[in-house]
Amino acid sequence: MEEIPSMQKKIVLLGDSSVGKSSLVFKFVKDQFFENQEPTIGASFLTKTVPQNSHEVKLQIWDTAGQERYESLAPMYYRSASGALVVYDINDKQTFKKAKFWIKELISNGENGVIIFLVANKSDLEHNVDSVEASKYCEENGLFYFETSAKTGHNVVEVFTSMASQFEYVP
Ligand code: GDP
């Protein structure tokens, strides 16, 4: 059988603590959800291969390892990322503010052309951040907007596969 061409891409998750970053990665990679997701310890990544028409993308998905608490540590974490999922909790307005902070950081210090998705997680809970406001913010800043729930699985596969399909494959 002919081997499928493959490319590897690093993507990172950014956002406040407890917005569900680890839960999203777990749901996507292992199809599991934990009500009490253990905090990530140490730098860690999981990989998952996403097939495309002509090739496959090996996503190397980095979770922040709690580094969001130390804003100054962040640049080395996301500098070499081709894509970023900036996550907030749709139930918690404060985390939306923080997401906008991370987006600014990524735009000024991230890789040129880094693809940024704004992810409103916990869509199964009450929406305290207005979806219209969030999507308008994305439109103005050239970002993609998704609403997800790591708990129900809503849009979780979609967000990662859409990210994988953004990377141009050059044979
Ligand atoms: P992180 O610190 O951003 O990595 O957040 P975690 O993945 O550790 O999740 C924090 C808490 O939120 C855990 O108790 C999760 O079970 C919970 N959680 C994560 N995603 C969702 C979701 O989509 N809906 C609900 N209701 N809870 C979630």
Automatic annotation (TrEMBL):
It comes from the Eukaryota. Coiled coil: none annotated. PROSITE patterns: ARF (PS51417), RAB (PS51419), RAS (PS51421), RHO (PS51420). CDD domains: Rab5_related. Keywords: Nucleotide-binding. The keyword Nucleotide-binding applies. Pfam families: Ras. Signal peptide: none annotated. Gene3D superfamilies: P-loop containing nucleotide triphosphate hydrolases. One of its GO terms (molecular function) is GTPase activity. This is Ras-related protein rab-5c. It comes from Anaeramoeba flamelloides. The lineage of its organism: Eukaryota, Metamonada, Anaeramoebidae, Anaeramoeba.
